[in-house]
Amino acid sequence: MRHGIFAQSLGRAVAASAALLLGSAALAQTPNDTALADLAETTQDGWDVPAVGLMQMRDGQVRIGVYGLRETGEDVPVTPDDMWHIGSNTKSMTATLVARLAERGLVSWDDTIEDLLGAHIATIDPGYHDVTFRHLLSHHSGAPANIGMFHMMRFKVEGADGRPMPEQRLDFAGHILGSAPETEPGTEFVYSNVGYVIAGAMLEQALGEPWEVLIEREVMTPLGIDEFGFGAPGSQDQIDQPRGHRDGLLGNLVAMAGPDADNPPVLGPAGTMHMSLADYALYLQAHMDGGRGVDTEFLSQDSWDILHNAPFEAGYSMGWGLGTDELQHSGSNTMWIMHTVIVPEQQIGAVIVMNRARTDHAGPLFRQVVSMD
Predict the structure, then answer these.
(1) Whole-model pTM?
(2) Where are the alpha helices (DSSP H) in 185-276?
(3) Strand blocks (E) in the chain
């Protein structure tokens, strides 16, 4: 990835994410679409959030409109080139990484936890032995939704202290895999951040490189994406990017920066990335093209079909929720929220992002964004 994050030590994920390059964002000149910016202003006021970003994709064209403040109470407006935390929208990127590596024979969709982690984790419950990437990435692995709060705090400290990510993810996986699955693998959908971290650990042991390096080389760089990073965007001592917000004890909004502004970096494969909307559009366009059978050099049609179809029960594929004809996902670290919908056959899509996590129903807003002339 860009901006030098992880260039010296991938274990310094939280600290490094605060060292984003300011110059390229300042030089970029993505126009603030007037109609979408007006809608963003209405949304910002109605939903009581510091800032809103909206993106419309239609027939290969991208429009971005933003309105509001990078930090509540500070007179620093958001810009169309700002970077936003994408949360669990990262999950389809991890699945896309698996697809890229599988096409080169470096891993297989049917590689099991025992195949890739058995030599590295002393005790793996037999119930997990035959769990594959397909199980993990479709939330059918039997793994719990999340790791306990004690371990979340421990991994936050270890991430800030610089312990290498592959070591942390092996530790994370070992803590989960030593106990029996909560449900029989392949039988029940349980949305699991844990499963994606385990998948990341499997990739790291198979390739000998951190997930952060792999996702940059195999997904971001081939798609031309360079405005991205891990953890919360921006630096701790300057308001150089939007900041996430959470509710304070007195009902006020509190802006978050630095290590406390995101989940522990060990959770990267499940949802710690940030990027500009324009670069996110490059990623979404690849999925829209692949989803309607356009011949791309990025992935084969067989791989697109795996990514966009449910391997077990209807409703969820590999990092995507499935609708009648759309792919959709949302992501939040409780301080940001991003909603994404794309309809490959119609070549349309919409993204809504805010620097405060609001749970208002986004369907009507999606329709407004998509239909905007």
Answers:
(1) 0.91
(2) 193-207, 211-215, 268-271
(3) 51-58, 61-68, 83-85, 228-230, 244-247, 253-256, 273-276, 321-322, 327-331, 337-343, 348-354
